[in-house]
Amino acid sequence: MKAEASPVMTDAAANAKPITLIEAVTQALAWEMRHDDSVVVLGEDVGVNGGVFRATAGLQAQFGPERVLDTPLDETTIAGLTVGMAAMGMKPVAEAQFDGFVYPMLDHVICHAARFRYRTRGRLTCPMVLRVPWGGGIRAPEHHSEANEALFTNVPGLRVVLPSSPARAYGMLLAAIREPDPVIYFEPKRIYRQYKELVPDDGEALPLDVCYVLRDGSDVTLVTWGAQVKEALEAAEQLAAEGISAEVIDVATLKPLDFATIAESVAKTGRCVIVHEAPRTAGFGAEIAARLAEESMFDLVAPVERVTGYDTHMPLFRLEMKYMPATARVVEAAKRTLAHS
């Protein structure tokens, strides 16, 4: 899918100012809390301190401690409260301070939140969002730099969203809060403050469940999500300088996957490189590669390439960026696909 600009300049668009991805999260939360009294925010230090990354800065002052709740340092309790609030008709947005802190929440998320609609044959839903700062690249210690999205894509009943820009972070968070079923909303913290773009505060949600084609191309398809969109776009620029046309797709919503957009691109290019930060084995890229083998095999003129993290925990500090898929690795993988005629 390609986002199209509105032909009419709204007041919000005219007054928009450049903001970072983390500011876009704050902006979306504030909009939805102003317009829907059932939306509440909860988590460790989200109120007085505004969260470890300041994603909720100022929200408690605007909406009060009954709607922006500082919780105990207990992820299991946070998840349980969130599921309970959602079951009673509220729209809670919970924060896991870091990706590696999400594991104590899995019981409530997998065994209850993800099953409400199925368990009640559609009579009850669980309209909750779990915000998870995600990924490496910030020189943090163990449990603070994990790319664990594949854990959740394997769970029926969950949506898994991973925006890669301020505009998509804003629009997709609005859409996630408005969903009647649970959404795992990963935020790539490496690019929280990396760049700014204009994001009108107009309450316009972006569609979930679609991929975004960020760059047209005809020779090879680069498929990625989250912070690695930056490296994919850089690789496309380098390839273009050598006369190679790369199409770049931001998956954005991993579950459910908009495979049709990927398949359409591969039918055009005949080649695919999948880029993700998570470890290689059973990473979500393997699911995309399997679908290509099943449904697009006769469109492929070269084996699918994966450029990923390694099958180890994130190495601390000095080796951290060696672990991350670099632009050069993406370029090399693309060229390997082009070696096949």
Automatic annotation (TrEMBL):
Leader sequence residues: none
Key word Metal-binding present: no
Obligatory cofactor(s): thiamine diphosphate
Gene Ontology terms for molecular function: oxidoreductase activity
Keywords carried by this UniProt record: Oxidoreductase, Thiamine pyrophosphate
EC number of this enzyme: 1.2.4.4
SUPFAM superfamilies reported for this sequence: Thiamin diphosphate-binding fold (THDP-binding), TK C-terminal domain-like
Top-level taxon of the source organism: Bacteria
Broadest EC class assigned to this enzyme: oxidoreductase
Domain Transketolase-like pyrimidine-binding positions: 19-194
Pfam family, one: Transketolase_C
InterPro entries for the chain: THDP-binding, Transketo_C/PFOR_II, Transketolase-like_Pyr-bd, Transketolase_C
Gene3D superfamilies on file: 3.40.50.920, 3.40.50.970
UniProt xrefs under PANTHER family: 2-OXOISOVALERATE DEHYDROGENASE SUBUNIT BETA, MITOCHONDRIAL, 2-OXOISOVALERATE DEHYDROGENASE SUBUNIT BETA-RELATED
Protein name in UniProt: 3-methyl-2-oxobutanoate dehydrogenase (2-methylpropanoyl-transferring)
